[in-house]
């Protein structure tokens, strides 16, 4: 294990611009794995724990992406004439083309000789974040080497593929090793266009390495969450719950609303470790039943959950009748439900999807299952953009109901503050206020109608009295 003291020294140098005289954290020996970030004092829910700046950052370019964004400021450029005119093979805006950062990038890539310098290439643009490690200071490169790296058989593939895009790609073993190591660190601890973290934290559309965040260990029920400053891309980490002095500060590498088996496979395959947190050790996931499916016995109404969540293909056990099912059998049920709901989600009718989730899906998949939760999240995201074919009443009731449902799942899991919770609770309050206002308006209309009816009755009495006279 790399010395926590040396890691702390390098982190202090990296975070010097923030000048935190009384930091709320320190690097120490973790009970989860290796090193970790520990609280140096009691932290209240919502309190800022630390800020971190990217040691490396670049475009998370993929082949299917639009590649006309400046490689320095990341602003989207016009569709034509956005490539650097110096022949480095990078897109850049006119302002950034004169900056020190681009000059350094440009000189490096130009010396390597891009095969097609005037054509945007996702492989070259994606490599930039990694290649920038070459021009870091010794302390900064040492910090990269202090971070955990998953050195599997594939971590050299990216650099090898990038080499084919240049005529004079470096052959110096030291430079190639720096890039390979950086790829491994980014894959283990970095960000890459929100591929993993999309349901609990702010989305991040770049490829980047935040060193202090990279030291944090994973927990499937993290006690912190993060946001980004849009102008600087600095990360701000806050306490999701109250954290005691000496307690480890954790984050999550996975989506929150994913079942135990799926999270286990992702962490094992992508991050190289097996999570043993309390949630992973509980087949019911603290009573949230996110993996739960209905029992295959038509006479039983129980839920079926995987017996041993640490195995990739465990047997499943009904909590009521105790009937056992194979993993393959339960995956057929899961796949059927996923296919049915996704078919409605992919249709052009949002109203149809909402009706299906409200009236049909519960007959073959529990409302707690992550497929249903994902579908409800999708509905809320679509309604945030447009009402589509839903009327005002359906829009309001759906936002109220789905925000409540997802928040209740978060409560069962024991999840604290997050951007998602804030959004859901804000949405729920808005709909509560709208419903209350509508009820008040209806009550006022009924009161006014009652007054009119009373006046009409009084007038009838007067007319009747006059008629008698």
Write the layout of secondary structure elements.
Elements: H1 4-14, E1 25-29, E2 35-39, E3 48-52, E4 56-59, H2 100-112, H3 122-131, H4 138-146, H5 157-163, H6 173-189, E5 191-192, E6 206-209, H7 211-215, E7 217-218, E8 224-228, E9 235-239, E10 248-251, H8 260-271, E11 293-294, E12 303-306, E13 316-318, E14 324-325, H9 327-345, H10 350-359, H11 370-385, H12 392-413, H13 419-468
Parallel strand pairs: 7-10
Antiparallel strand pairs: 1-2, 2-10, 3-9, 4-6, 5-6, 8-9, 11-12, 12-13, 13-14
Could you please describe the fold and organization of this structure?
This protein has 13 helices and 14 strands. Helix 9 (327-345) packs parallel to helix 11 (370-385) and helix 11 packs across helix 12 (392-413). By secondary structure, the chain is an alpha+beta fold. The protein is 43% helix and 11% strand. The model has no long low-confidence stretch (mean pLDDT 90).
Query: What is the overall shape?
Result: globular
Structural classification: alpha+beta
Count of β-strands:
14
Q: What is the helix/strand order? A: HEEEEHHHHHEEHEEEEHEEEEHHHHH
Strand order of the largest sheet: 1-2-10-7
Radius of gyration over C-alpha positions, nearest whole angstrom: 28 Å
N- and C-termini, Cα separation:
107 Å
Number of helices: 13
Which whole number gives the mean pLDDT? 90
Largest sheet: 4 strands, mixed
User: Helix share of residues?
Assistant: 40-55%
Strand-residue proportion: 5-15%
């Amino acid at each position: 294990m790399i010395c926590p003291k040396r890691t702390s020294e390098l982190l202090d140098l990296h975070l010097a611009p923030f000048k935190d005289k009384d930091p709320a954290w320190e690097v120490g020996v973790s009970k989860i794995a290796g090193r970790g970030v520990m609280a140096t004092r009691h932290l209240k829910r919502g309190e800022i724990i630390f800020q971190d700046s990217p040691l490396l950052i670049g475009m998370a370019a993929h082949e299917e992406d639009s590649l006309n964004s400046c490689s320095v400021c990341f602003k989207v450029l016009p569709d034509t004439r956005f490539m650097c005119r110096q022949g480095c093979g990078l897109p850049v805006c006119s302002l950034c083309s004169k900056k020190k950062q681009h000059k350094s990038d440009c000189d490096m890539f130009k010396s390597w000789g891009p095969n097609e310098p005037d054509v945007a290439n996702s492989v070259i643009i994606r490599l930039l974040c990694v290649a920038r490690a070459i021009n870091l200071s010794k302390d900064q490169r040492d910090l990269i080497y202090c971070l955990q790296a998953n050195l599997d058989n594939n971590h050299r593939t990216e650099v090898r593929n990038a080499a084919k895009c240049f005529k004079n790609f470096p052959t110096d073993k030291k430079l190639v090793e720096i890039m390979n190591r950086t790829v491994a660190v980014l894959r283990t601890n970095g960000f890459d266009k929100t591929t993993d973290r999309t349901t609990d934290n702010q989305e991040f559309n770049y490829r980047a390495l935040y060193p202090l965040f990279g030291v944090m260990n994973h927990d499937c029920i993290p006690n912190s969450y993060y946001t980004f400053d849009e102008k600087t891309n600095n990360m701000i980490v806050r306490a999701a719950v109250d954290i005691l002095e000496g307690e480890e500060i954790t984050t999550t590498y996975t989506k929150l609303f994913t079942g135990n088996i799926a999270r286990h496979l992702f962490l094992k395959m992508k991050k190289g470790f097996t999570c043993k947190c309390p949630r992973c050790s509980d087949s019911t996931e603290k009573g949230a039943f996110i993996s739960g499916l209905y029992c295959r016995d038509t006479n039983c109404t129980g839920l079926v959950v995987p017996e041993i969540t640490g195995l990739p293909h465990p047997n499943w056990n009904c909590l009521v009748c105790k009937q056992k099912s194979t993993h393959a059998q339960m995956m057929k049920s899961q796949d059927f439900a996923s296919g049915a709901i996704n078919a409605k989600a992919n249709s052009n009718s949002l109203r149809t999807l909402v009706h299906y989730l409200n009236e049909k899906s519960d007959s073959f998949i529990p409302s707690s299952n992550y497929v249903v939760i994902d579908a409800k999240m999708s509905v809320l995201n679509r309604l945030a953009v447009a009402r589509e074919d839903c009327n005002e009443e359906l829009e309001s009731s759906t936002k109220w109901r789905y925000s409540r449902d997802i928040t209740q799942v978060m409560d069962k899991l024991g999840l604290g503050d997050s951007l998602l919770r804030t959004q859901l609770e804000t949405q729920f309050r808005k709909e509560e206020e709208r419903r209350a206002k509508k009820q008040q308006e209806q009550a006022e209309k009924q009161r006014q109608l009652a007054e009119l009816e009373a006046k009409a009755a009084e007038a009838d009495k007067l007319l009747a009295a006059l008629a008698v006279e």
